Amino acid sequence: MTGSTQPLTSTDCDLRDFPYMPLDVLRLRDSEISKHASGEEFRCAVLLWCASWHQVPAASLPDDDIMLAQFAGFGRVVKAWKKVRDGALRGWIKCADGRLYHPTVAEKANEAQQAKRIHAHKKLCDRLRKANTPKSEIPSFSDWISGGMSQGIPPETDLKRKEEDDDADKNSDGIPPENTLIGRREEGRRNINTTTTVVVARPRAAKKCPDGFEVSETLEAWARNEVPTINLHAETEKFRDHTFSRAITDWDGAWRNWMRNAREYIKNKSPPGETFREKDARMAAERVAAFAPSIANKSAMHDPIQTIDVFEVTNATRITGS
User: Would the pTM count as exceeding 0.70?
Assistant: First the structure.
């Protein structure tokens, strides 16, 4: 081990939010440590790789036997750790910062750090575009890195301050600070699209009448013509309290159907004190009365003097054609 080699990862290489470490199966299978290390040495080596992944910088370990014994699973038993130290640290290099680095782990850490930076830069560009930032002011990836922004997305307060400044500039031109996605603010005074599209939300389906439902004048006029015998106030209160079996969006149509059903219910409702037998007889008589004109007309066409007897459950009605 030497102390002149530069660290293999940057000082800001922090992968503690990366729960997984990539494992190159072929390289590990054909490596020197898999061929020559004992089982205990191999176990400690893998634990040290895992521990270095969440160190800062990533892929490094402190050159301290007490700490290394803890990472290797020996706890405070440093003497036992020293027996496997050389085999477990096979391939590690001591760099100029005094820490131990593993080249293979460092290679994977640098790849992960680069992917993390690319992702952070992409999110930064998305947020700047949403803030209506001109394209010329959005930094490229290389400019962003060279500008010292490798720590990730800038603090939220910086972007909020920029958005507030943009709104202040718009107010100075007499334009209200509405949705920043409407139009595009560029250098100088340009034409800004202030046209807004009004989207009418569809009524939310529900099984119970909404609290704001009211019987409009149009519905009242319909009820006067279609269901004049219905007590609108009483039936509307029942309608509001009822829970339907399916969700409804057209409450005006549901109200009209409710009134039609109430009309039919009242029409078929039995008078007070009427028995089931009397109800059957009454309904049969109503059916006969409904069909009597057509029966009489058909009979008259064949025999003007013909008599037709129609029998019901309890009594008979005689219809004579003339």
Answer: no
